[in-house]
What we know:
- By secondary structure, the protein is α/β, with parallel strands linked by helices.
- 40% of the residues are buried.
- Helix 1 packs across helix 5 and helix 3 (139-159) runs parallel beside helix 4.
- The strands form three sheets. A three-stranded mixed sheet has the order 4-3-5.
- The chain has helices at residues 62-73, 105-116, 139-159, 186-199, 229-247, and strands at residues 7-9, 15-17, 31-34, 40-42, 80-82, 127-129, 167-171, 203-207.
Amino acid sequence: MAGRGGVEKDHTGQLVWDGYIPPEAQSDPTILRFSPEGQWEIALEPVHDGIDINKTVGVGSAIVFARQLQAKSKSKAGVVGLVPCARGGTLIEEWIKNPNNPKATFYQNFIERIKASEKDGGVVRALIWLQGESDAAASDTARRYKDNLKKFFMDIRNDIKPRFLPIILVKIAVYDTYMKHDTHDLPAVRAAEDAVQKELPDIVTIDSLNLVNTVTHEGFNQDHGHFNTKTQIALGKWLADTYLSHYGQFL
């Protein structure tokens, strides 16, 4: 979700972004980003720069999503504000609400950014969630994923009431091969995503397996785990089309 399009290892083995921004992800004055400092600014790739800290970020799906939303909705979408919050390589248990754990800061920061983004008249229209590869890398976290994801979504909606928050849930395509576990269970996480969609209202799923080939690794970077720029473009357009087909009437 944070975007790794164009991020590959250089000759020294360090991850670097190639700096290429495709036309679909170019900046526009009517597409804004809520900065790490809590200010609105023109969105530029990488959108998660300064958000997904200590990671090498590249092209993601956010600006593509916004441009497609504007193009397909004509003038209805108006100015689109993006509120990036993703942190790569994290478990769902690092995101769920836990008042008894002072180190569990992701959730509180997430809620604070939602509320702060609305102070100048903005309205949060949806949550896009793509996460779970790290959970799928081990059978124990994969088995707990459904209950944790359901709690996460329910807590968010409860804490930002009375806002209406539809969720577009992107089903994962791979497990995190960087996680050094002896077991992995991608099917368990994918089944959990389907189950949460059925048990909670106003959640739409799209399946990222339709964008990649996990045998030939088409659609991935050379690490075979992160979406390349072409896939990020396709995902952004699909997310916008999905939002408009289900919730476009709320624009």
